[in-house]
User: Fold these one by one.
Assistant:
Number 1:
Amino acid sequence: MSVRILSSLLLAGLLLPAQAAEEYDLVVYGGTAGGVMTAVAGAREGLSVVLLEPRDHVGGMVTGGLSWSDIGKEEVIGGLALEFAWRVGNKYKMRHYMPRGPRVWAFEPKVAEAVMREMLKEAGVKVLFRHRLKEKGGVVKEGTRVERIVMENGASFAAKIFADCTYEGDLMAQAGISYTWGREGVDEYGESLAGVRERTPYHQFVVDIRPYDENGRLLPLVSDQPRGEPGSADRKVQAYNFRVIISDDPDNQVPFPKPPDYDPRRY
């Protein structure tokens, strides 16, 4: 009897219909700063929008430790980026006169995320955390068109427009979209400043740091390969690093334990 009951339950489970897809005008995958602003912009234009974030926070690097914005010429910044800086300034209760509003370009991660969450809520964007694209079979296509995407938790989303706003481009890759990485050479599009640069006018320094260990071996992740001919293409990506907020106030510190596999040679 127990075997028959178990068999019936298994058969019933196999016959259950697939989870119906939620439908939106715009599905944004990735809660980076770009993803947040894409979702807000779409919602303000009257689209129904859902923002899917694989982890627990929105804002990407802007709310994850990169708290000093590299802005270049402030005069050219406008739109949602300027609105964000203006809202951050209001959070800090900046009252002195500024021609373009109380904007702030250096901020705490928690303040930046609070502002982004407010912008999403005001625009009516539905935000779902812990929604990660399935590694295989996560994109369902009809011909060249993406019909829906499926998450690891089984949730499914259909839309007229899908925007991959992650840093890794998983949705883009699964959708079969062509892409490139690295630096294009000067000849690719006729850009005089493209490709490998021999020297740049700013932010290129001679660093007095020994790249070898005590045995004369290169430290981990340090390359001794030649930079390449100026103007040539390469297939390299930008180096990764950690940007963290650390306090020297004991009452404001949150200790982080040393990982069991920590190797000081790598840092």
Number 2:
Amino acid sequence: MFHEVVKMRSYLSNLECTYCGEIFSADEPMRLCEKCGKVLYPRYDIEEASKYFTKDVLSARSPNMWRYFEMLPIREVSNIVSLGEGFTPIFETSALGKKIGSEALFIKDEGLNPTASFKARGLSAAVSKAKELGLKKLTMPSAGNAAGAMTSYAARAGLDALVFMPQDAPDANQKEVSVT
């Protein structure tokens, strides 16, 4: 499935605080900025990536989100945890577009991801990074689709998962989490 990216390298450089600009290693578990408590974003060496990471290279790869491996926060292909997420179809809906005053309207059906939502993409990357960092237990709060995606990908990776859900979370989401 990922044979074409086995020789690829990640262009992940570091983590950077979105508020104060503090820089952290991308190879250690980090949740928030240790200086100000704000969100950390992954930063990539775009200049170096642009030398190899071209449209032709991408178009020759398998149709899944991991074709963009070099620009995702994973360093080693062997750490990828996948259920086949990504490359969900896009439908043109001209008639609906015209009704809302647009010449063209496109709808992407993210419900066709393995866990039936776009959350599959982010949680595939997050659980892959957790695996790469050697984490064994994952936890998160969620009232819905993120919980199902996290527990599904954690199960695929052989990691323990604990989700905190409000009592009034939809039954379908609670059941999905309880069976993974």
